[in-house]
Amino acid sequence: MKEAMPMAQEAETPLGAAEVEVLRKQFLKEGEYVTVQTKFNYAWSLIRSADRKQVGEGIKLLTEIFHDSPERRRECLYYLAIGHYKIANYSEARKFNRELLKHEPRNEQARDLDRRIDEKVSSGMLIQVIGTIGLAIVGGVVTVGAALLAAIVKRSRQ
After folding, report:
1. The dihedral of CA 75, 79, 81, 84: what is its sign?
2. Most buried in the list 45, 102, 108, 134, measured by CB within 10 Å?
3. Mind listing the pLDDT tens digit for each residue in 14-34?
4. CB of 55 closer than 8 Å to CB of 86
5. Contact 8, 112 (CB under 8 A)
6. Alpha carbon separation from 11 to 27, 34, 45, 46, 109 (Å, rounded)
7. Tens of pLDDT, residues 31-52
8. CA separation (Å) from 142 to 10, 145, 147?
9. Three-class SS string for the chain?
10. Burial code of 64-102, b = ≥16 C-beta within 10 A, e = fewer?
11. Is residue 111 classed exposed, middle or buried when 0-12, 13-18 and 19+ CB atoms within 10 A define those classes?
12. pLDDT tens figures, 123-153
């Protein structure tokens, strides 16, 4: 039986500093003999951080686990997707999440995250389109203004 993973919304809720510190101390205490579970727990806490640097460190640790521990790949895929989503690296988030969905097409957590990624990408595209239209309008106004100014200057010289 598979463990339940939290919905994307829960994974975005940061842990308290004290909770992260407990996991960090355990991670450091184990040193070069750190267990996969301890490393995963610490990486998970970093992924849940609001700090981009900590999320990046969590992604690094999860990537190591993904490569070194095949039995943890399913969980790593999901949290790698969450981590990349949180730092707005939507193409990587989608890549990891879609890989998980290939193996588990009914995974509600991954489906929820997939919807969230699509919403962010769509809203980002809308902002780009609006920005492009805005620049075109400003450019048009400047061009018309320049033409009017040139006509006024030309008329005043006659």
Report:
1. negative
2. 45
3. 888 899 999 999 999 999 999
4. yes
5. yes
6. 20, 24, 9, 11, 10
7. 999 999 999 999 999 999 989 9
8. 48, 5, 9
9. CCCCCCCHHHHCCCCCHHHHHHHHHHHHHHHHHCCHHHHHHHHHHHHCCCCHHHHHHHHHHHHHHHHHCHHHHHHHHHHHHHHHHHCCCHHHHHHHHHHHHHHCCCCHHHHHHHHHHHHHHHHHHHHHHHHHHHHHHHHHHHHHHHHHHHHHHHHHHC
10. ebbeeeeebbbbbbbbbbbbbbbeebbeebbebbebbbe
11. middle
12. 655 445 455 555 556 666 667 666 677 777 7
Rounded to an integer, what distance in angstroms lies between the CA atom of residue 108 and that of residue 115? 11
Compute the distance between CA of residue 126 and CA of residue 134 in angstroms, rounded to an integer. Answer: 12
- Looking at residue 136, its amino acid is A
Amino acid at 98: R
Token pair listed for 37: 């579970």
